[in-house]
Structures are given as structure tokens and as C-alpha cells.
Design a protein that fits this description.
The complex is a heterodimer of chains A (about 525) and B (about 375). Chain A contains 17 helices and 22 strands. Chain A has about 525 residues and is of the alpha/beta class. In chain A, strands 7-8-9-4-10-11 form a six-stranded mixed sheet, sandwiched between helices. A six-stranded mixed sheet of chain A has the order 18-19-20-15-21-22. In chain A, a hairpin with a 6-residue loop joins strand 12 (about 270-280) and strand 13 (about 285-290). In chain A, helix 5 (about 155-165) packs parallel to helix 6, helix 13 (about 385-400) packs across helix 14 (about 415-430) and helix 14 packs parallel to helix 15 (about 445-460). Chain B has a domain at about 80-330: Orthogonal Bundle (ABC transporter involved in vitamin B12 uptake, BtuC). Chain B is about 70% helix and about 0% strand. The chains are: A alpha/beta (about 525), B mainly alpha (about 375).
Chain lengths: ~525, ~375
């Protein structure tokens, strides 16, 4: 059997241009006459809100979609990319937001099996030798013998990039490449990538929401809005404000209330004492002790996903059994029953509201009634449901919270992510709120929805609610919190008031370096 | 609220409420009806391939099921147990559970009713009939309630467990009618002692259809009201729509699941009681008549809507009733109607993928360009 050698690493970066790209899905134009130019060896940022057409554009480049009209040029030659295979042959590759590695296999195994043609019987000796020579040409080192599962997120992301180079791809689309990394890891990975573009080994088109990454690493940028190209230029010649304006157009953006000072005599609303609960795998456990959230403050919990935040929230929400420990709300033990949540005014907004806080096929009005359907106007329990009352209640909240929906009878799944979150906020923030527990409230939402939702949370805080905010977005925590705690490996490992918070230190604790 | 930017047009009141109401409901009617027509068409091809005339078949089906007062009564008699059996599928389905073992609850409900009827022989008839009904409901309720409890507290798949528990129920029934409850006079077919005539359920005045039909229809209406109009039904719909959302709202998901499953089983047990008290007169192997499985078909055709179960049960009762006529006149095996039921089931499941796809039924798409 002949073992085909690994694809010849042509070391030169590839330049890609699109001309007049248009993509229609039925009557809907996802991409409208977009021309972008990413010269070989450049680092180009692609900006835009959700649904602006960024992924449609890169999917056209990668051969997943066939554009309705428009051309793609690779290194100045017009090419026809009919499938991802064609894109790969031209040296075009993509690194996805979430890892595509097999966790139980080693780095080397992941690389070899990712090849287009893998022999039926793999000669690992020869492969390893070939890999060693290949790695010598790489600008950074990576242990390839350890299972991917044992690698840190930053290493996995580096391996993803190495994989693309190993497959002979020298034009990479990076789709929000740092969303799962700590700030330190993000700096390192993007720094390495930029060095490779500088040396002419790589061209990068990065989809990102984070302006500080764009300004620090990219050369040029293109902005899309509602499928149209609304701006492009050199990063050095445009500031963040200008880029943000191109992204969102002339929509007004909600601003945060100014932060009213935390009362020194504010009572702790939520107290968690020596809590212990099994994590998802059942092999490890989470341990939370001495967490207190006072009335009128936002306590942020930072951490890389998978460090027990989800399990902690599930315990607070009554979805997970605890081994021991106490959750106390306003001096009373709290077990997350409906009655307790109601009498103690506890509200819970889980992440991905459509998946965790809504019944997707029930109507907007019904979903907005989840918290109150069993009460009458005076707050007394009732046996009979009044659909009229549910509708008028929802109509009022839809108006107040500006939920965009075709009708109150639409299934809530028909709404955009931002409007689902608005509907859930409307449901949970109406009435008196003493404790608000929120998880990743702005994940995947567009600019204006994010600003508005953060403003709502701040408003709840200022009117006296104790807020526990869990977020994977450090910028969000820095913007909203009064104190930041870091969760790592199931425990709270670090605490800092916002005044002295440093991204650097928080990042180190997130990575578990302490 | 000056700090929150105005997002353009919150609720757009441009949809005509009446039109929207009609469109959203029409979908749930038109798609199943279209699916039934498509299913009939596919079945026609099957019949034609057998060298028979589909036209003649549908004509016979009509005459056998609905063409005369006699055939209508026959149809309604067959529809009666289907109503309750279908509720045993539809109620758990609203909580997201696929329970297919209603047969077990029917069988046990029948045995329990027969045992009570024999045990209390001599007591006033209305009391005994009431207790027979209650006994059948308790037996069925415990059986399917256990399925719900296994599901919620021990994470046992309810589809598998309900099916396996149906086999256990049948084995239990065989054990009882051949052992402790056996009437020594029943020689060829081991049965319980026959019920006294006073404890039998008779016919609806003016019809040759027993009261089970009325009980079934009332049960469907009550179930619909429970689901659509009460807070327990609303809570169940939340839990069925997304159990995580229900938990976050602090709803008692476990009791809801067990409660709805127990009620579902109680209806199936009641079907068993009616079968004993109105049709068989005692409990024996005839209770294993496949009503529990036919009920699955009815519930899915009705899209788990208790009110829709009523016409669907009548339709399937009619198809069933015409089986004999088809067999005699067209010289086709009576399994032919089972083929039709199977085809309908597949087509209905397939039609589930069409919901929300048609612009005309989906007001959320009306304004998109």
C-alpha cells in the first residue's frame, strides 16, 4: 500500500477577493453585492452584528453555499468553489468558534485523521517523523503526544490553526477564535497568528465582535450590516466609534444608568455556605463557600465555561441536587420552589433563554406568563387560566420592553434571539425583584440588544436588587459588576472589587495559574 | 423610560386578529386531513397492485363504516374504547412523554373491575358499577403512574418501560384469571366469574351503542379543559414544551409527570372496566384486543389534542368496522385495514415536518419580503 505523503506545505499565503457577492434565500437577501479584498499576508477583520451576513459570506468562500451571483478570486485568478473540497484544494480553510478536535485522541492523531486521504493502515512511525519535520517549520511548539482533552483551551485553538496549516491551507477564516479563551490565551494566539501573516505564511480573515482585538491585531476591516457592505478601510485610520457606527447604523443605543453607590449597611440577600454538589461528569464536584450578594450590588462571576458555573447555577435554580451546604435568601433557606421564589422575589434568567427559559412552541403571550399564570390580579392562586388576562398582560410587557413580534400568538421560537431575551427579561423583571440570578445574558445577541439588556440589569441593581451575574464575557463583567469573583475548577478562587480589577490577574485565575 | 432606546415598532398590530386566528388553527386541521388523503392514495396504489379496485374498496369502507344507521352504530361501538385508549397516549404526550403501553392499563383495569364486581356481588348496582369504575381507574393509574415515576425519578425511558409493563400486565392478568380469580366453569377460555346482569352497563337509549361512548367523549372534553384551561394543564404544557424552563420556574415537574401519567392510565383502566362491564361480562384474554395500540394511532392522528381524538376515533372505528365487509365482498384478508392504519400512521408522522412551513398558515412569515 502506498502511503500518500502529507499534503505538500506550500508555504505562501493566499490572497482572496470577492466581487459582487450576492446570496438570496427565497425572497430574503442575505448578502447583497459584497466585494472584499484580502491580500496575501494580511490580517483582515470582518465585523457585523448577528444576521449581518458574515457567516453567509464566509460560507460562500468555503464552498458551503453557492452564491446567487458574484465571483471569487484566489491569488488574482477567478475560481469556481463548488464544494468545501475545492476550497481546501485552493488553500482556503476555516477555524470554527467551537473546537472540532476529537478529545480522546492525541494532537498527532487528530492531525493525521483530519487529512483528506488517510490510508487504511496508518504507519504511525513514519507519520510521527513527518509531523516532527512539519512542526519544525512552525513558529510555535505544541506537544502532540498528549490527548486533546488534557490541553488548555489556548493550546487547542493553536492546534486547530496548526491543523489548517498541516492540511496546506494558507488562507484562514477564524470565526470568533477567542470566545473560549482567557484574555491571556487570546493575546497569545492572535499574536502568533499575526506574526505568521507578517512573515507571509498566512492570510487571515477574522470574524469578531471584540473591537479591542480588531484594533490590536487586524490591518484592515470590512463591515456588513443587513447583508450590505457598510464600511471598509484600514484599522489604523478608523476608531472604534466609527466602526461601531458602521455596524449598527443610526440605531440609538441604550446607555447604562450611572451606578448608584452600594449602601454600606446593605443587607446580604443571597448567601451560599459550604455548598457541595457533583458536576456533570459526576467525577468532580463544585465547592462554593462564603458567597454573599448584597442588595443593590452586582457580583460578577468570571470563568472559562466548564469550570462548574453551570452546575452552580443549576443548584441555585433547583435543577441539581446538592450533597451538602446551604443556600440562604433573606435569612431563609432557599430550595428554589415556586412558592419560595415568589415570596422571596427571586428571579432567574438562564443562558440561552430559548433553550432554558422558554417553551419554544408555545406562544409569546404564554411564555411571558410562565411566572404568573397561576395567580390572579391580587396574587392569589387560581385554578382556571384566563387566556384574556394572559394576552393583555403580555401585550403590556411587549410594549414596555419593546419586544418585536409579529403577534402575541406567534410561537416564541419565531422571534430573534434579542427579542426572546427581551421577552424573558420582561417576564422576570416585572414586579419587585430582590435577587436576580443571570447567566450570560447577552450571549449571541446583537449590539443594540446587548446595550439594552445590560441597561435593564443595571436598572434592577439600582432599584435595590441583589444581582449575581455569571458571564463568560469579561468585558460584560467589567462593565456591570461591583465585585468580580473568579470560578475555576468548581471553586471561587479569587475576588476583587471592580476598582482594582485587572484583566491580567483575572485571566490568570481563570486559567488556574494560581 | 428615557434611558432605554426606542427600538422601532414593538408589537406591530397590523395582523388582522381574526385572519391570524383562522390561519393558525387551519394548519392543525388542513395538514392532518391532507395527510389522511395522501395515506388513502398510497393505500389505493397498494390495493391496485393486488389487482383490486380502490374505488370499490373506498365505497365499501364508506358503507361499512358510515353508510347506514347499523354501520354507524357499529362504528361508534368500536370508537368508544379508542377514545379512552388514545387519552392514555395524548395526556403524557403533552408532557413530552411517549407512552405506548396503554394496553397494560386496559387489561389490569378490566381485571380489577371484574374482581370488584364479583367480590361485591349482591350490593346495590349503582354502587358496584361506581366502584368497578374506580377500581379500574386506580389499577390503570398506578400502572402508568409508575411509568411516569420511573421516567422522572429514575430516568427510565417511558416508551420502553410502558411497553414492557404492558407485557407484565398481560402476564399478571393470565395468572389471575387462570388462578385465584378463575371461574371453574370457564373451561376453554379461563375467565373470571361472569358479572351479575345488574352490574352490566347497558346501551345508550335509542342506540345499540353502550355508555362507554359517552364516558369516552366526556373524558376527552374534560381532558381538553384540564390541559387548556387550568393551571395544572398550563404547567404541564410548560414542562412538556421545555422541562428546563419549567424547573427554572420552580414548577413541580415530578408530581406533574406522575399525575398526568396516572390520569392517563386511569382513563385506560376505565376503558378496561367498560370493556368488561359493557361487552365481555367477565375478564379474560379477550381484553388483550389491541385497543391500547390502536389508541396510539388515534392520539398521533389527533396530534395529541383531546378534542380531535373524538372525530379521529370515529374515523378509525369506521375503518375498523368496514373490515369485515371488505373481507367478504372483495376477498381480501381483514389485515388489509391494518395496512391502511399503518400507512396512515407513517404519513401522519411524516406530515409533522410540514408544520410552520406554509406561508399561508404562518402569520410570522406574512410580512417578510
Amino acid at each position: 500500500m502506498i502511503i500518500p505523503p502529507p499534503p505538500p506545505p506550500t508555504d505562501k499565503a493566499v490572497g482572496v477577493e470577492t466581487y459582487g457577492m450576492t446570496m438570496r434565500f427565497g425572497g430574503f437577501t442575505a448578502l447583497d453585492d459584497v466585494s472584499i479584498k484580502v491580500p496575501a499576508g494580511s490580517f483582515h477583520a470582518l465585523l457585523g452584528e448577528n444576521g449581518a451576513g458574515k457567516s453567509t459570506l464566509v460560507k460562500c468562500m468555503m464552498g458551503f453555499y453557492h452564491p446567487t451571483s458574484g465571483q471569487i478570486m484566489v491569488d488574482g485568478r477567478e475560481v469556481n468553489i463548488a464544494s468545501p473540497k475545492d476550497a481546501s484544494a485552493l488553500g482556503l480553510g476555516m477555524v470554527y468558534q467551537h473546537f472540532t478536535l476529537v478529545p480522546s485522541l492525541t494532537g498527532a492523531e487528530n492531525l493525521v485523521i483530519s487529512r483528506q486521504h488517510v490510508p487504511g493502515i496508518i504507519d504511525w512511525g513514519a507519520e510521527k517523523k513527518a509531523l516532527a519535520t512539519f512542526m519544525e517549520r512552525m513558529p510555535f511548539k505544541l506537544p502532540l503526544d498528549a490527548p486533546v482533552a488534557t490541553m488548555a483551551a489556548g493550546e487547542k485553538q493553536k492546534l486547530e490553526i496548526i491543523k489548517q496549516l498541516y492540511l496546506g491551507r494558507h488562507f484562514l477564516v477564524l470565526d470568533e477564535p477567542t470566545s473560549v479563551l482567557t484574555p491571556g490565551e487570546a493575546q497569545e494566539v492572535l499574536g502568533l497568528v499575526r506574526a505568521m501573516t507578517r512573515s507571509g505564511d498566512l492570510t487571515v480573515l477574522m470574524i469578531s465582535h471584540k473591537f479591542h482585538e480588531v484594533t490590536a491585531f487586524a490591518d484592515d476591516f470590512t463591515v456588513l450590516r443587513k447583508g450590505k457592505q457598510t464600511g471598509a478601510g484600514k484599522v489604523s485610520e478608523n476608531d472604534r466609534k466609527a466602526m461601531a457606527a458602521m455596524m449598527i447604523g443610526d440605531q440609538p443605543i441604550a446607555t447604562l444608568d450611572s451606578r448608584s453607590p452600594v449602601q454600606s449597611d446593605a443587607k446580604p440577600i443571597l448567601v451560599v455556605k459550604s455548598l457541595k454538589a457533583p458536576d456533570r461528569t459526576g467525577l468532580k464536584s463544585i465547592d462554593i463557600d462564603g458567597l454573599a450578594v448584597k442588595s443593590g450590588e452586582i457580583v460578577g462571576i468570571a470563568g472559562i465555561s466548564g469550570n462548574g458555573q453551570k452546575e452552580f447555577l443549576e443548584v441555585l435554580a433547583g435543577q441539581r441536587q446538592r450533597d451538602r451546604g446551604e443556600v440562604v435568601v433573606k435569612d431563609l433557606p432557599y430550595n428554589a420552589t415556586r412558592t419560595e421564589a415568589r415570596t422571596l422575589n427571586v428571579r432567574f434568567i438562564p443562558e440561552e433563554p430559548l433553550r432554558n427559559a422558554c417553551a419554544p412552541r408555545m406562544t409569546v403571550a404564554e411564555n411571558m406568563a410562565f411566572r404568573t399564570f397561576d395567580l390572579d390580579a391580587k396574587g392569589k392562586p387560581v385554578a382556571w387560566i384566563s387566556s384574556g388576562a394572559i394576552r393583555s398582560f403580555a401585550a403590556r410587557l411587549v410594549e414596555q420592553f419593546k419586544v418585536k413580534t409579529a403577534s402575541l400568538a406567534s410561537p416564541i421560537a419565531a422571534l430573534s434571539g434579542g427579542n426572546v431575551q427581551r421577552a424573558v427579561l420582561a417576564r422576570e423583571l416585572t414586579g419587585e425583584v430582590d435577587l436576580l440570578i443571570v447567566s450570560n445574558p447577552c450571549f449571541g445577541l446583537d449590539f443594540s440588544a446587548v446595550a439594552e439588556i445590560r441597561a435593564r440589569i443595571m436598572k434592577a441593581r439600582n432599584s435595590g436588587a441583589a444581582v449575581l451575574l455569571m458571564s463568560e464575557d469579561l468585558d460584560e463583567l467589567l462593565e456591570l459588576s461591583d465585585r468580580i469573583l473568579v470560578m475555576s475548577d468548581g471553586a471561587l478562587v479569587y475576588e476583587t472589587p471592580i476598582a482594582t480589577a485587572s484583566v491580567q490577574t483575572i485571566g490568570e485565575h481563570m486559567a488556574g495559574h494560581h | 423610560m428615557t434611558d432605554i432606546a426606542a427600538t422601532p415598532s414593538a408589537l406591530s398590530p397590523k395582523l388582522s386578529p381574526a385572519l391570524e386566528w383562522v390561519a393558525r388553527r387551519a394548519e392543525g386541521f388542513v395538514i392532518p386531513v391532507a395527510a389522511i388523503i395522501v395515506g388513502m392514495a398510497i393505500f389505493s396504489v397498494f390495493v391496485a397492485l393486488l389487482g383490486k379496485s380502490p374505488a370499490q374498496l373506498f365505497d365499501l369502507m364508506w358503507r361499512g363504516g358510515f353508510g347506514s344507521w347499523f354501520s354507524i352504530q357499529n362504528t361508534l361501538s368500536r370508537a368508544a374504547p379508542l377514545l379512552l385508549a388514545a387519552l392514555c397516549v395524548a395526556l403524557p404526550a403533552r408532557l413530552g412523554l411517549v407512552v405506548i403501553g396503554g394496553e397494560g392499563a386496559i387489561v389490569l383495569g378490566g381485571v380489577a373491575a371484574a374482581a370488584i364486581g364479583v367480590w361485591l356481588d349482591g350490593a346495590p348496582s349503582f354502587l358496584v358499577i361506581l366502584l368497578m369504575g374506580a377500581g379500574g381507574m386506580v389499577a390503570g393509574g398506578i400502572w402508568i403512574g409508575a411509568v411516569g415515576a420511573l421516567r422522572h425519578y429514575r430516568a427510565v425511558n417511558e416508551t420502553i418501560s410502558s411497553l414492557l409493563m404492558a407485557y407484565i400486565a398481560i402476564a399478571l392478568m393470565n395468572q389471575l384469571v387462570e388462578g385465584p380469580l378463575r371461574d371453574p366453569a370457564s373451561l376453554n377460555k379461563p375467565s373470571t366469574h361472569p358479572l351479575a346482569e345488574a352490574y352490566r352497563i347497558g346501551s345508550i337509549p335509542g342506540m345499540d351503542v353502550h355508555w362507554g361512548l359517552v364516558v369516552g367523549i366526556v373524558a376527552c372534553i374534560v381532558s381538553w379543559i384540564l390541559i387548556e384551561k387550568t393551571r395544572w394543564g398550563f404547567a404541564a404544557r410548560i414542562a412538556g414544551g421545555n422541562v428546563r424552563a419549567a424547573q427554572v420556574q420552580g414548577l413541580a415537574v415530578g408530581p406533574l409527570i406522575v399525575g398526568f401519567c396516572a390520569l392517563a392510565g386511569a382513563f385506560a383502566g376505565l376503558a378496561g372496566m367498560i370493556e368488561v362491564a359493557a361487552v365481555q361480562g367477565n375478564a379474560n384474554g379477550s381484553l388483550v384486543a389491541g385497543y391500547g395500540y390502536a389508541g396510539i394511532l388515534v392520539a398521533f392522528l389527533a396530534r395529541q389534542n383531546p378534542l380531535a381524538i373524538i372525530p379521529v376515533a370515529v374515523l378509525l372505528g369506521g375503518i375498523d368496522a368496514s373490515g369485515g365487509l371488505i373481507q367478504r365482498r372483495m376477498d381480501m384478508p381483514d389485515a388489509t385495514v391494518l395496512v391502511l392504519q399503518g400507512v396512515l400512521f407513517i404519513v401522519i408522522l411524516f406530515s409533522e415536518t410540514f408544520y410552520g412551513r406554509f406561508r399561508i398558515f404562518n402569520p410570522d412569515l406574512w410580512k417578510r419580503g
